[in-house]
Design goal:
The protein has 10 helices and 6 strands; from the N terminus they run E-H-H-H-H-H-E-H-E-H-E-H-E-H-E-H. By secondary structure, it is an alpha/beta fold. It folds into 2 domains: about 140 residues, HAD superfamily/HAD-like (Rossmann fold); about 70 residues, DNA polymerase, domain 1. It has a 6-stranded parallel beta sheet with strand order 3-2-1-4-5-6, sandwiched between helices. Helix 1 crosses helix 4. The structure holds 1,6-di-O-phosphono-beta-D-glucopyranose and magnesium ion. The site of 1,6-di-O-phosphono-beta-D-glucopyranose has 20 residues, from helix 3.
């Protein structure tokens, strides 16, 4: 079989850490005297930590000194990590292991392309660290999604041409990044928000092995 590169986003694709980001951001906003809704949290998906705090401060009409900004960033991450500490393999989203197993069996390249600076820690917690031949996360990039940098570095790590790579993404910016990288984009979520992806599935339970096989052989 052909060897392709399969690049996975983390939050929203492999695990649902968005709920922990939300709890941590909400508690920070409450400390600053306002609240954030689940709808607002949607807009933070795939967005870097710094940019997320800038957006949240905008919602609350707050400005902070650089020192206070850094303090709140660290506080949010400590809170987030207290949730991550409780994670185990049970938090891997349904049927993700099925797809990963199939890709391993057929010896495809498997990489991670995430905006999170905590990605390695999370993969270890859920027992998937060894599955990824290449890991590119928020520590490795200078330009955030929708810039294609994260996926282009992942393709390099897998020693694959971008056109031989397939990206699984749940965020609007991430799908745009995959498209700009010249890769096949697979949106995980709703057609309404991810209509610009080459394919969209609600989650991995909708992805058949025969579909992955087609991607490998194209
Ligand atoms: P951290 P992904 C993204 O992960 C999250 O979707 C986003 O909400 C978060 O702000 C970002 O990682 C940074 O995370 O604070 O852990 O560095 O979807 O790109 O895997
Ligand atoms: Mg994501």
């Amino acid at each position: 079989m052909n060897k392709k590169g399969f690049i996975f986003d983390l939050d929203g694709v492999i695990v649902d850490t968005a709920k922990y980001h939300y709890l941590a951001w909400k508690s920070l906003a409450n400390e600053l005297g306002f609240d954030i809704s689940l709808e607002q949290n949607e807009q933070l998906k795939g967005v870097s930590r710094v940019r997320s705090l800038e957006i949240i401060l905008g919602w609350g009409n707050k400005t902070l000194s650089q020192e206070a900004f850094d303090k709140y960033m660290a506080e949010k991450n400590d809170n987030y990590l207290s949730h991550i500490a409780q994670m185990d393999a049970g938090e891997i989203l349904p049927d993700v292991p099925k797809t990963l197993n199939y890709l391993q069996e057929t010896q495809q390249g498997i990489a991670l392309g995430s905006a999170s600076k905590n990605a390695r820690k999370i993969l270890r917690k859920v027992g998937l660290f060894e599955v990824f031949e290449g890991i590119v996360d928020g520590n490795d990039v200078s330009k955030a999604k929708p810039d294609p940098e994260v996926f282009l570095i992942a393709a390099e790590k897998l020693d694959k041409k971008p056109t031989d790579c397939i990206v699984f993404e749940d965020s609007v910016a991430g799908v745009t990044a995959a498209n700009s990288a010249g890769m096949i984009s697979i949106g995980i979520g709703s057609e309404d928000t991810l209509g610009h992806a080459d394919y969209v599935f609600k989650d991995f339970t909708e992805i058949q092995t025969s579909f992955i096989e087609e991607l490998i052989n194209r």
